[in-house]
Specification:
33% of the residues lie in helices and 21% in strands. It contains twelve helices and 13 strands. It has helices spanning 14-38, 51-54, 73-89, 115-122, 180-183, 222-226, 236-242, 256-265, 331-345, 384-396, 414-442, 446-457, and strands at 56-64, 96-100, 104-110, 127-137, 184-186, 272-276, 290-300, 304-313, 319-329, 354-358, 361-364, 375-379, 402-411. It is elongated. The two termini are 50 Å apart.
């Protein structure tokens, strides 16, 4: 007598398959909903559209360089690569970055990018860590000057290349007396100090280490003289007194933007002067902006291998609502960072402070302790956007020079919108034909085909 063997499908009962499929669909939409409601940055229900469908803004950037400098094709190519990395790091989709002519760069961004995003593309983002020599409060210029300021004629050429950054602001600074836990902390708790000594990057002919107060009596570099901000023979102490953090009236002297611009051009092996923004606390009067005389840089942004942003936390691990930028150094930067923080931590105030300077602007100048392990963090009055911008700029490297916005125009999505509309119409017609054919050919079984199409669409 023959026996029959009952076959079982590999997937089990169809009901189980449908239940599993439904669960996957629910999990999919739950994940999207979580990213919309809880994501940082938040997600969205609809897909992001590119330039062809949404339009956007197209800007042309032209390099700003110092007198006697020339822009090479290699520098332009490097700038294009780093601007593209910055754009992608900000999560912008379908952006286009390309060269335009011999030295200009064209950037096309979908949607309506913020001015902060556009400014971040043009900033050089040269980062220097410098030891503080002395500091003083900024005094606003008087409006009763007897004669207008006239810059002295340029009589000497700069000895070192100079770049001219855009006037767009860097992230806001912190208070002048910020302490280590609020502004600049080590990622390790058991540093291993090394003997202090002269900074390697300080000019050998100076005979001074980067923290020496004798820098105040040294003549300023030619860069300050040729740009009309100092006279030949002026000392760095005089430069510190003359430097303005708040002047916006050219009739009263060089503007704050001009001072910051030239400060950003100073190479790492020379001292410089820079400003930290005034900070106001709730219920308290605003503190005056602080200006600093810094020694030659001993650690530079090129020695950073990674940078990221995150919410700051207190010692209990509770978020404080502020944002920070975490830094990771390569082996050379880690050794140099430990060496300088060890030396600076033993000095009297204010030389026990360490300045973080980006494009001629002081982000923070906290007191410090020996920091080992190659990791540190910068915190201050950062917003989410400004901390993200700074992290991307430091992570992907500085541009060889800064740029100014030459033109800015809106891109129309008309061509892409037409193609999208025609494609949707063609797709609807094709789908209706498939539905009609399935019902005509298979009757009720055609609903299985239609259900499969709906499932695939979901």
């Amino acid at each position: 007598m023959a026996t029959r063997t009952r076959r079982t499908t590999p997937g089990g009962r169809p009901v189980r398959v449908l239940v599993a499929l439904t669960a996957l669909i629910i999990a999919l939409f739950a994940g999207i909903g979580a990213s919309v409601g809880l994501g940082d940055p938040s997600g969205q229900w609809t897909p992001k559209l590119g330039l062809d469908l949404e339009g956007g803004r197209q800007i042309v950037l032209k390099p700003t360089v110092g007198k006697g400098q020339q822009v090479t094709a290699g520098q332009v190519t490097q700038a294009v690569d780093r601007i593209r990395q910055r754009v992608n790091g900000n999560g912008v989709t379908e952006a286009q970055v390309s060269t335009l002519g011999a030295d200009s760069i064209q950037v096309s961004l979908p949607g309506n990018p913020s001015q902060e995003t556009l400014n971040a593309l043009a900033q050089s983002s040269q980062l220097f860590f410098r030891a503080v020599i002395t500091t003083t409060a900024d005094v606003p210029p008087s409006f009763d000057l007897p004669t207008p300021y006239v810059a002295p004629p340029a009589t000497v050429a700069p000895k070192t290349p100079a770049v001219k950054p855009s006037a767009s602001p860097s992230p806001s600074g912190t208070t002048a007396n910020a302490v280590l836990p609020q502004a600049f902390k080590a990622a390790t708790s058991t540093p291993t100090p090394t003997p202090s000594g002269p900074a390697k990057s300080a000019p050998a002919v100076s005979g001074l280490d980067a923290s020496s107060p004798a820098w105040e009596q040294r003549p300023v570099s030619k860069t300050w003289v040729i740009n009309g901000l100092a006279k030949a023979g002026d000392t760095y102490g005089q430069l510190l007194q003359n430097y303005s953090c708040s002047n916006n009236n050219p009739a009263l002297g060089p503007t704050a933007a001009k001072w910051q611009q030239i400060s950003s051009e100073i190479p790492k092996g020379e001292p410089t002067v820079a400003c930290e923004d005034a900070v106001s606390q709730p219920g308290q009067p605003a503190t005056a902006a602080q200006k600093y005389l810094f020694g030659p840089s001993e650690v530079v942004g090129g020695e950073i291998t990674d940078a990221s942003f995150a919410q700051a936390t207190n010692q209990q691990g509770t978020p404080t609502g502020e944002y920070k930028v975490d830094l990771t150094f390569n082996s050379k930067g880690s050794d140099a960072f430990l060496k300088v923080t060890t030396r600076v931590s033993k000095l009297p105030a204010p030389r026990n402070r360490f300045g973080i300077v980006v494009d001629g602007k002081v982000i923070s100048a906290p007191t410090t302790v020996p920091i080992s392990g190659g990791k540190a963090e910068i915190s201050g009055n950062f917003t989410e956007a400004s901390s993200k911008t700074l992290a991307n700029q430091l992570k992907f490297g500085a541009l060889p020079f800064s740029f100014e916005e030459l033109t800015s125009s809106q891109i129309s999505p008309q061509l892409g919108a037409t193609q999208l509309r025609d494609g949707i119409i063609a797709g609807i017609i094709g789908l209706l034909l498939v539905v009609l054919y399935s019902l005509a050919q298979y009757r009720l079984l055609g609903l299985v085909t239609i259900f499969s199409l709906v499932t695939a669409g979901i």
